[in-house]
Protein 1
Amino acid sequence: MALVGTSAYAAEEGEAIAEENIEQIVVVGSRAAPRSVADSAVPIDVVGGDELGKSGATDMLDMLASAVPSFAARAQPISDAASLIRPVNLRGLPSDSTLVLVNGKRRHRASVIAFQGGGVNDGAQGPDISVIPSVALKQVEVLRDGAAAQYGSDAIAGVMNFVLKDDADGGSISVKTGEFSEGDGAATIIDGNVGLPFTDDGFVNISFQLKNADATSRSIQRPDAQGLIDAGNTDVISPAQIWGNPEIEDDITIFANVGLDLGDDKEFYMFGNYSERDVTGGFYYRNPHSRGNVYSIDEGETLLVGDVGLAETGVPSCSFSNATAAVPLAPSNVPANVGNVLNTQPYMDMIADPNCFSMNQVRPGGYTPAFGGNITDTSLTIGTKGDIKSGFLTDWMYDLSGSVGRNESSFNLSNTLNPSLGLSTPTTFETGKYIQLEKTFNADLVRGIDIGLYEDLNFAAGIEWREESFEIVAGEESSWKAGPYADQGFNIGSHGFKGFGPETAGTNVRRNIAAYVDVEAYITESLMLGAAVRHEDFNTFGTTTDYKLTAQFALTDDLSLRASHSTGFRAPTVGQANVVNTQTSIVEGNLIQTFLAPATDPLAAFYGASELTPEESTSFAGGMVYQNGDFFLTVDAYSIEVTDRLAQSSQVDVLAEDYDDLRLLGVQNPELISGVTFFTNDFDTTTSGLDIVSNYSMSLFGGETGLAMAYNFNQTEVDSFNPDTTSDGKVRRLEEGMPEHRGTFTVSQSWDSMSMFLRANYFGEYWAVHADDTSDWGAETADSAVTFDAEASYFLNDSITLTAGANNILDQEAQELKPGTKGAVGGVYYESGPFDYNGAYYYVKATYSF
């Protein structure tokens, strides 16, 4: 019930295409019997598990990005929860517009929502595919075509199917270690796979991976922090903040795949995983002179002084008044005699009064919060499939399955304060959890029906029931509590990432049921036509019906044309509809604390939010396939129109003139909220592009030589948007924030005892923006770039392979931040770049196979 596909990079390493040009079977794209790649009506890339492992990349995201040009994954150095689970995109659309399958079954999404997702992924909630180790995979199948009518919500950009190994014997164990040319980011990965028999008619295939990776730093000392040091403040560290990859500790994952032949053409299957990791990343530096609501008033020059008596008894007792500027806070670049507020006489007089305090007494040099989390991911799928040989469904093939998936993100914050608690504030906080839980049941039927066509009509039908829940678990009290000094202007909750309070805790659930019909047949020897229609009913926002049409026509034995047209949809996730979060953003060099509220929250509704609805899509695609011996070429053009596109809004300022109205609506302490964001359906886009994939293998230099080329052109235009909730800067980032041109060219060579490859990666120009700041302050057009990857393997014997290689071997630098912005962000490079800003990465690997 699948198509046959050939990898875009099948020639790489000289493995995927042998002398016989063996083709690979895939299970996405069609529910008909397997067909050759030349007969495929939709473009599908197949990347072998061994091929994915031949890379310096330390997780699945970067492995796929180097193998599929229309797939991208970006580093997230300072991006709240997006640092813990990185968002990805296929064909320029967000991560939750690509449906992810494992062994053909829907994979649950992550609990983390990318609040700072690099523009295209702002607010996206896709699956966490980084937990899938390459050692567990037989292959990855990438369907580059809209498929919502076949598979349901999220399949607007395409489908990715991760096929687990199913060997009943043999296995491998490997150790890989490497680090960046700067001498940091050292990573060690130990992985293994073993196939075992399960009686005489089945298998148990188990894979594991253990990974640890140090943090990287591409930081520079911030000028404001250096100014404090020069002025005599001895409590400021250098650098004041770390800008780089987060630290990953004890990243363990286990995958198991089980199959058993039950006889009579029936089989049982089961697969699942357990994964867990700890991640710690950085935040922005809090300056002890200018950070408003912590150290100063309105980020000005007056120290924020706490009055103990006013907080405890309601009677003012502190002799220093902020209103009269009794304790001045000078800018960070003032002369040394007042550069450190702790050395000024007004400050010394103030702290001598036991009824007064400032947060400088707790963190005199300022502070940089460290944001971390524990991510736990589990899943289990059980099913049976086979032929029905009696009853009214005789001659039908069936597949019945049930799946459950759970992803939990537990957040923590250290080296920070809850200023509203005064001097008794803790400095470490457990800020709460997000939990995503999904349950799915599928029943599928398929059979061939002879209606007088060139081949039997393949008829498939099925139903799917899904339940999705999103739970917010409250953090410890000190992480969200409004302490006794909140009314005096001190920030509420753990600063940088406020804990989830009891008012936001709870579970929200959505259920839906879907039914589909899919037909496909060769009308003549040269013409294949297919159609699918799917109807889904959601208990929260109603129904949707979508369809897909496909066609393939063979002009000659070597050349065929293909086309598809489909409609699709993406339902807003339960998390997007109900999530609550407080985030810190940098806008024009200033730190802004923004509250993310559900669209139905009074604060969000006051500033224009409304009930979320599904986004809808219309896709057109056409292309050609040419295959002659060892030469393979596909060219595919596509256009994807998305209306009512769902994303996180731009920041909307909370105005002082609105404070009284907001209080009447029940919003607490609106004066401490700089801005609000929410999810909205406020813009439409058209994404169009072109994919070219080609490979060729031949005998050369006494061995096998492979040449592989892949190119992707992708362009997004925002057709309409609401200027009240989507800024011009965000529109430009959506349209220009990723390179329109991306290409790779790989040369591989293999002999009996050795193999090697060299890969060139091209990235076109793009609009570079720092973090989520869409203003012109820190943005510019980034130059195109070329990086090179290389690897060589020596087969010591039949069991042992030694490997050495490098990603970005020539240490091509990422785009540097424009002058005047490096100091404000404490970093050197734009984080929104299409390749790793850390520079060259060198690695060695030893593998033992048995």
Note: The longest strand covers residues 428-449.
Protein 2
Amino acid sequence: MVFENMQRRSLGAVMGSGWSGIWQKAKVGVHSAAVENRWVQAFVAKKWSLLLIVMGFLLGRAMILEQLSPFALAFVAVIYFTRKDILHWVGIAAFAGSLLAVNGNTGYLVTEIVIFLLIQKALEKYERSDVSLAPILVFSSTFLVQLFAELVVSNLTWYSLMMLTVEALLSLVLTLIFIQAIPVFTLTRKNYHLKHEEIICLIILLASVMTGTVGWLVGPVTVEHVLSRYLILLFALVGGAPFGASVGVVTGLILSLANSNAIYQMSLLAFSGMLAGLLKEGNRLMVAFGMLIGSVILSFYMGSSVDMINSAWESLAAVALFLLTPRSVILMLAKYVPGTQENLKSQQDYAKRVRDVTAGRVEQFSEVFRQLARSFKQLTTEDEVSRKEEDVGHFMNAVTQKACESCWKKSQCWDQKFYQTYTYMTDMMSQIETKESMTKKQIPPEWKKVCIRTEQVLDVMKQQYSLYKNDRHWKKQIIDSRHLVADQLSGVSQVMEDLAKEIKREGQELFLQEEQIRNALEELGLSIHTIDVISLDEGNIEIEIIHQYTKGFDECRKIIAPLLSEIIGENVAVMREEMHTRGEGYSTVVFGSAKEYEVETGVAGAAKGGDLFSGDSYSTVELGNGKYAVALSDGMGNGERARAESETALSILQQLLQSGMDEKLAIKSLNSVLMLRSSDEMYATVDMALIDMYSANTTFMKIGSTPSFIKRGTEVIPISANNLPVGILSEIDVDLVSIPLQSGDILVMMTDGIFDAPGHAVNKEMWMKRMIQEIDTTLPQDFADCLLERIFRHHHGEIQDDMTVVVARIEKRQPEWATFRWPGITRMERPKTVS
């Protein structure tokens, strides 16, 4: 309990210090960011609030078909749910706008707003209020007020009923449109991404606002025509011809509904917007020139000379406003339009911020685990000498209380002759420690002269020493467990730190590299849809290309991969290719770093006595970090249980290494897992070779395994290490052996069933070297089969133990297609690696 309380206090202190530091940093960052942006946010909020109030005024004045006004109530209803803080100002603005309308509708508007608010308050009382009900509420309010008005004046006809129904339905549709468009102005969006439907809703909202300016004239210039052409110029510059034509159609349609005399504006604005968008690759002047040409041409065919001159003045006024528009406004609008460079950049900036935040969180967790590991190590570095003296003192006190407490010579021994008695007690304890089976006859004579209860003291000492020894054993177990936890926490911390670096590296901008690859491929006449450069790290290149698939031609391996190798300066190969299932003729191809070396393996084995299950297990797998693992494990004994033990050892070790854990720490963790998973004495040998596919440098981890051999031409090189199998001792020392392999080397790994085949009277290592030298084949599978067959013949067909041999051959990779140089292609500059 004392140890548990100390452990909890230490863990809590570390966790508290780690999390409190993180929380304090977060609070300081949030506070500084809030102070820095408070005034900017206040200014922007006031600016948008003023804009919404002006929009409310114009929508209160707006009418279509000279008698319907469905805009104001829909706008006020959406403002109620999105910006309730300015609802009264918007309502006043809409009321003021209705007073200046051509046909007075102020009474209807005020009544509709009152009815809407009453129904909404009733729903809020019963907790049924939701923005999704806004269209229904607007429809109901408009329909009921208009119907009541017609009934009061006794003027209800089928035509008036149809018109009030149309107005109510228009209010419903406009409410749905405003729900998607108004959030752009209320700062409720956290990212700059609008769908095409939302863009159309925004255009409808702006065109509806323009209808509020119908009838306003500045000399010969009509205000709504100037604003509509100005809007077209903005969207044509930002989104090109499709957006320019779309804005022209929508704006012209709504303006023609507000003013039937301006029906020709729809075709004029659509054509002008398309022509302006086609010239967006130039600059503002070219976009303005396109709009001027389009409007003048259609005005020449559709109207008189006076109309043509007025249209030209309106276009010039719109161009003047367009040229005076700040660049920041255009960039802000471009962020919302899908497909623009600004929109893509804003999304990538947002993704980069998310990655940076995630990487920061992972680094913080890594630091917490590192502090925990440091804390556990501090708990296990206490002074061993002082601890042992303390334990000895407890031991002596326990013996004194049980053996000397009732003795009549206690005061004489411990008060008058304390040092003499303590010395004899210590000598007796030392003798019991060296010989636990000490009998009464073996008690030293000098001790009997000092103590009159030697036999009783001996029995108590033997009993207490047994307890003392057991206590020392469990304390050592606890210390070993702390060391293990500290090592594993350090490993987890390192893995998380590597993960944070990987997340940061993914956030690098690779636009220039993608554009360079695209230009090079398009110069060859290849149809490339998209290019995504995921990583350009040396030895870890990953590029994903979607291109037009041509059946019968392997452009990827023959053209694209060699060209990428020349551009990047590193051998690139096709990792995988996937045809799109939708039948559009596209396929996705992933290119990655081609390994400098290739590994070919072969395996042969047999179970003891010809049984079905062998206690040996093997694994040949690429770990994904440029390393290839060839592993062999021999479980204790034979049969299914030994096989399960060896398979478990290999599986756990492989997963630990794939996660990025250090090799020595992975072996120690595996050893701890095998010790804890079973109370029986189950252990397994591990023989693993980690081959670097780029340099052929190989690290051997031999844990209780037999030697391995490297055949290089006619020379055979043995590889051995002195390590116990995993699962026996709680603490093991791991010796790693690193040897650079060469192209053509053959690596032979085997279990003890093959290595011990010649028997004890023969030098096994020399016998096995001669056996490997005599095998002529270089194919790994034939080599393994031949070696196993010779072992069978040596034992006359008898299988005395589980036997498994794994053979791997390392070869320098030869690219299937050579790289080529294309005129004008330059070597790519790789981004700096994030440290």
Note: Residues 1-43 have pLDDT under 50 and may be disordered.
Protein 3
Amino acid sequence: MPASVASLTKTDFLHDYRLGWESRHASLAGRKEVFMGKAKFGIFGDGKELPQLAMARAFRAGDWRAGYYRDQTFMLAIGELTLQQYFAQLYAHPDVEAEPATAGRAMNGHFGTRFLDEDGNFRASAEMKNSSADISPTGGQMPRLVGLAYASKLYRQNPELHQFSDFSVNGNEVAFGTIGNASTSEGMFFEAINAAGVLQIPMLISVWDDHYGISVPAEYQTTKQNISEILKGFQREGEGQDGFEIYRVNGWDYLALLETYEQAAEACRSQHVPALVHVRELTQPQGHSTSGSHERYKSTDRLSWEQEHDCLLKMREWLLADGHASAEELDAIEKEAQQLVKEARTAAWQEFFNPIKQERDEVVELLNKLVAETGTENQLHEMVEALKHNTTPIRADLVRTVRRALRQVREQRSASRRELQNWLEQALADNADRYNSYLFSQSEEAVGNIEEVAVAYADDAASVDGREVLQACFTANFERDARIFAIGEDVGRIGDVNQAFAGLQEKFGELRVTDTGIRECTIIGQGIGAAMRGLKPITEIQYLDYLLYGIQTLSDDVACLQYRTKGGQKAPLIVRTRGHRLEGIWHSGSPIQMILGAIRGIHLCVPRDMTQAAGFYNTLLRSDEPAIVIECLNGYRLKEKMPQNPGDFTLPLGRPETLLRGADLTIVTYGSMCRIVMEAAQQLAEVGISVEVMDVQTLLPFDTDHLIVDSIQRTNRVLFADEDVPGGATAYMMQQVLDEQHAYRFLDSQPRCLSAQAHRPPYGSDGDYFSKPSVEDVFDAVYEIMQEADPKRFPAIY
């Protein structure tokens, strides 16, 4: 028995027993609150208490968690969740002080610590017990877990990082992950297990095995119904060998759990070996969630077995059998735990509901004044009475009532009407902060706060391949900031497939420029976790088409991280990829519509050349916000001038650049299409059509200064062009310009979109020509617009 376990006393045992029952009663009370209508949905951690208590005893300051929605006992045990906060989250309390994990934005069971201060800067995570913010998609925590553990490896093995003691103490931090047995069927679980084994990182993953995944038993989930059995090949052969340490333990055996977690955590911490703890024979007393009863799908025998093997009852049996406590002591603990939960639940509800009740009373008073002043009692009486007698109003009820009341008195003009309008304006602003804020960083390192530095060229600037500009940019940034590293397929030894990292591994070492396996999902995850721990990762997805393998992780995790924690967490990850034109179905993609729809909360840069790309990298590597940069596949060997300041000049995001001035029509485009459009513009000029060409440069954010509408105000016509599918990014750009910038006011012709075909481009030059917009397509689209406007000057061509 490890010394730390052997040193535990009766006080320690009863402390854990008390915490276990507090958590259990919180689960039981939470289910009742949902059924009473005080919460929308509930999912709880009952039945998993003992292994989480044991895991918490092995968890130290500086460690990290990436778990899922059963981990309430663990969070209570490490002191990063109170019972009142637990219920505040169940009620969706939108106050970050009351519910610090998500400010009411995530459903209950979604835990996280605030590792940023009020200004959005990193706290000293090495001194804290840290939990990355949970997400619901099962297995979705696994990619991030790889990165959290990988950061410890970098902090230990790279001497340049030893100065960052706020984030790590010699890489001693362990990343603890938890997952349900059914979710180990997810591909990202296996990918993360393999990645951790290859990387040899301090990742401790616990599998809570209660035999079911909602209603589906293990025989439909896992080969041999045993995840540790099928992972035997990952078991390392001895100390110093690569692989995993794999442990199996019953979830109701308290002492065995304590010993197992102490051993597993020590192996991770001291040797940087990953470990898997398969916690078997767990139960789920209330079933999966409040959506239904497990009696519908569990047999009588199974339900009886679960009652007998309830981990808290088993702990009670052990405490009594070994003489650590009397039945009366344990009864008192259970009763006190139930009372404590009741008090926390009551306090949380009052703290959540009383402000709403006060707002309701204020609205009723304002409405009564309006009735008295305008004589509209018949119109508003029923509405006011319904709100007044609503015993559990929500803020939507208040705003809905006020908006409808103002609709009723729209022809009235009175002081009370204006007072009600003022209340509504303030309520909408307050609720925008509660429910719509913090999609992006609000710190001093936000993208918009990065100083703009112009690119500089010597008079005799050399003309070089575009890839060399990127190479110079990356070299300068790696020299400037030791926290920057790059990972990806072929990034290291050969310097990426297009040579922008050529020579950088030799110069900066394998820890900073690193090859990975073919595993896009966990390349992204490796970057997320490392970024959470204060590093500056560039994660490369070799081709844009393969971003699909990582889009779920980007969408569910990175994109909403600032939002779902209301500024409590961030992951300034840069995803570098290349796309648009090359050859074939899987190497010519421009799936921008898919990306735009999935990643709100991540910036999307679409530079037309490598100098523009370098400017974005320089900006982003000084920022604390995540971004995707899509380089043009056919641009690496095109000639560009080498800047004098390749690592220092910065480009603002959200500012289009006018590439060509014109008078007749504005073409809005980006990326590889810029060259196509510019060539078409020359040919259009030959027939007397003057086009203005605007490169949007970034799609998220999009034209924050509304420069495009200024152009349309001069030309009165517009064409949106790109290589995405019909109705994709061209439609997005049109919506932004017409809806947001109100450019419709200045149009003399129908706005048009020119996009690629709906299918992916086939292989070969002809496939490209007939699938994506060509110079001739751009020419014809513009000419048709002008021909409709002035048919005499521009007679039909075809």
Note: The chain has a mean pLDDT of 96.
